[in-house]
């Protein structure tokens, strides 16, 4: 991230009560970006800034929440009906998977005593409970049966009308494994998106060993930050970027993340 981009981000979040006395907002933002981009341990990060480990943990939590609050409306807005329709068409056109609105993945390590239900109780709760405003029922190709739009997942999520994951091949398929193949291929979307995210924010390079609430805050902040950086970075411009007589074209070549 360039100095100009850092200053702009600081300006966006500074007025949102992010001040942690006697630590300035700029230092708090720098500490947070350092951890997200390098996955340095909190202990090493605290030592490098001469802070206590608990202080760094509190800074991380507060700044991640503030980043999400400041950027979500502009950069991670919830899709409207037209955008949902485009997403559904893209899954059908590119991945040959009909009536799909997205792919979901979970990479949080739950406590040993909680089992798989720990992640299920938090992630995707709105989807599982049907509280999201999505598209209406529609028919699949070659069928007159109305079907709800779905999100494709893995076995971390339960099977629901709106959540579906691979299963063992059965006689209901013309070719064994046909559905599993199309399902796995469509899930490349979330895996590729995660790869792009992890290439910039190395905290995703390994499974997060933290509470689900903190993992959500970190993930949302990184998604918002990644979309923010996709809008253009002055480091990618020529050295004459500060000349007012030159207008530089802003190219957004990478897909933005929807949360």
UniProtKB/TrEMBL annotation:
Instruction: Please give the InterPro entries that the UniProt record associates with this protein.
Output: HARBI1-like, HARBI1_dom
Pfam families tied to this protein: DDE_Tnp_4
Q: Where in the cell is it found?
A: Nucleus
Its required cofactor(s), as named, are:
a divalent metal cation
Coiled-coil portions: none
Where is this protein chiefly located?
Answer: nucleus
Keywords assigned by UniProt, alphabetized? Hydrolase, Metal-binding, Nuclease, Nucleus
A single GO CC term, please? nucleus
For this protein, what is any one GO molecular function term?
hydrolase activity
What residue stretches are annotated with the DDE Tnp4 domain?
A: 145-227
What protein family does this chain belong to? Belongs to the HARBI1 family.
Protein name stated in the entry: DDE Tnp4 domain-containing protein
In which organism is this protein found?
Erpetoichthys calabaricus (Rope fish)
